[in-house]
Design a protein that fits this description.
Elements (H helix, E strand, L loop, with lengths): L1 H18 L6 H13 L1 E3 L4 H5 L12 E4 L4 E6 L6 E2 L20 E3 L6 E3 L12 E3 L4 E4 L12 E3 L4 E5 L12 E3 L4 E3 L4 H4 L6
Parallel strand pairs: 3-5, 5-7, 6-8, 7-9, 8-10, 9-11, 10-12
Antiparallel strand pairs: 1-4, 2-3
Length: about 200
Amino acid sequence: MEKAFTFILLTLLLLMASSAMTHTNITTDQLDLLSLKSQIISDPSHFFDENWSPVVSVCHWVKVTYGSRHQRVKSLNLSNMALTHSPNNFRGNLPQEMARLRRLKFLRLSVNNFSGKVPSWFGFLHQLQFLSLRNNSFTGSIPSFSSMSTLETLNLAFNSLEGHIPVSLSNASRLETLELSYNSLQGNIPEEIGNLRYMN
């Protein structure tokens, strides 16, 4: 009965999120993270049940950092949790609602079982500085990420990515660390990326 109630509550919250106007705030951030939670089909440590409750403010959630200045979520770290993402939505991709976390600066989803293509909507996170999808099952090509000028670290190692490294990554002018090893990429690193001034 309790599980059924939780499912109904989450469904209602997600419906509210999908019908919300473009204005975003800490409430819509919480709804967007609940969208991610709803698609996790295996949570061996019961992390989400114990730490991400829809009746508790996202400001108090574990693995989430809240920025008091703008009252938005600014950091999310879900690495090393052996999560399995539902294959029934976006073909295993992360939920697109996360693109509305516009103040997000740090996102670590490494060492899980997320699959599908690397979402192109990461490009909407204009303040993102750190992105790690290391050790997952992402496939397809690397998105252009052409508008991620604040990105300093991009780690996509140990996935199943294919194709060429996009030249548009050179638009990430603050990029310091780029880790793409253990994929099935072809060709050389574009010269434009190698010339980035902050690259290690």
